Batch of 2 targets.
Target 1
Amino acid sequence: AQSVSQHNHHVILSEAASLELGCNYSYGGTVNLFWYVQYPGQHLQLLLKYFSGDPLVKGIKGFEAEFIKSKFSFNLRKPSVQWSDTAEYFCAVTSGTYKYIFGTGTRLKVLA
Amino acid sequence: DTGVSQNPRHKITKRGQNVTFRCDPISEHNRLYWYRQTLGQGPEFLTYFQNEAQLEKSRLLSDRFSAERPKGSFSTLEIQRTEQGDSAMYLCASSSRGQGVSNYGYTFGSGTRLTVV
């Protein structure tokens, strides 16, 4: 069965620090990969997605993610975080169907 | 486009009671999904509608759970004889035929938080 692992459950950073959140998935076939963000009190919002092509994907708000097929990874990065990036981040995978498999999420707190 | 609307935002109920949640998707979206999110976990798929047809139900959806989407518009999720283990955030999402998960992802609602006491 497909699964998604997010190893960092809680991350605390100071503003301007660089961010990297890990995401690993288990599925042998073709996958589509996503990062969603949930700001406090708000709904899940799509940050970025990967379907094919360039493995370095750029999303909204300065986020990017790199798909490394050999490592089954899709890590999220941001060079310089802001206080407003405080949120919970979810990695998700689908094999092309309508169903997401989500990771357990990473709570990011950015200190001003 | 007012997004996906879910009501109520919060529901506290006593164990054994029935509860019903409502989801109003984006009007032009024909696909609707329910997910459940428990503390410390990511959302888990519950069920999927295409128009009024319920095309898939997860094994997580026990016999006490039922979801409907009459007329292919809003959807309801009912939980009968609630148990403490049902306490969770129930998320609804929608997408259109041309916006499957492989294209643009869903649009999620803000969820209904259920607490069973």
Target 2
Amino acid sequence: QVQLQESGPGLVKPSQTLSLTCSVSGGSISSGDYYWSWIRQPPGKGLEWIGHIYYSGSALYNPSLNSRVSISLDTSKNQFSLKMTSVTAADTAVYYCARDSFSSSWYWFDPWGQGALVTVSS
Amino acid sequence: DIQMTQSPSSLSASVGDRVTITCRASQTISSYLNWYQLKSGKAPKVLIFAASSLQSGVPSRFSGSGSGTDFTLTISSLQPEDFATYYCQQSYSTPYTFGQGTKLEIK
């Protein structure tokens, strides 16, 4: 059973770079034709898809964040990572990693990590 | 981007009640619609994928229906563990987008 766990600093200063890692256990990140996603939820608000990376390493981002975000894979550690530059208070959120599960042409997020709260504050 | 609109935004109900949550897409998305349950401090959980397919391990009191632009999630008989926030999500096109959520509270 695949499990995901986010890790990284819980506090980031404005204008700095947010970095989070998702550790995957119970399955290899580089097999199975899967995409691996980052999703966030600001306090009191809804969910926003940030982007995803294919097991081959190609990534796609939400255009609303495109210029500030990058997602990468580390297959040796079975992890994938998120970097977000020039953060502001608006980037304060719980950040989730998830696998894009699929069947034929249907995609959904499963499983998810428990989430990591990142606060942007000086 | 495809906008997803859920209603209601909050709902009070009692154990044993039948509850329906609605999700509307700003354009047709066929059946590319998923439903999730979120509880504070826990990993979000998919309930329904492809509009009406029950995820393995999810109780059969959860069901989904709809296609095109209008979708519903129904809980046939609320259990205490069902009080949570529910989100719909379209997987028709990127960027994937979610509804704003429906908070289900105990009456």
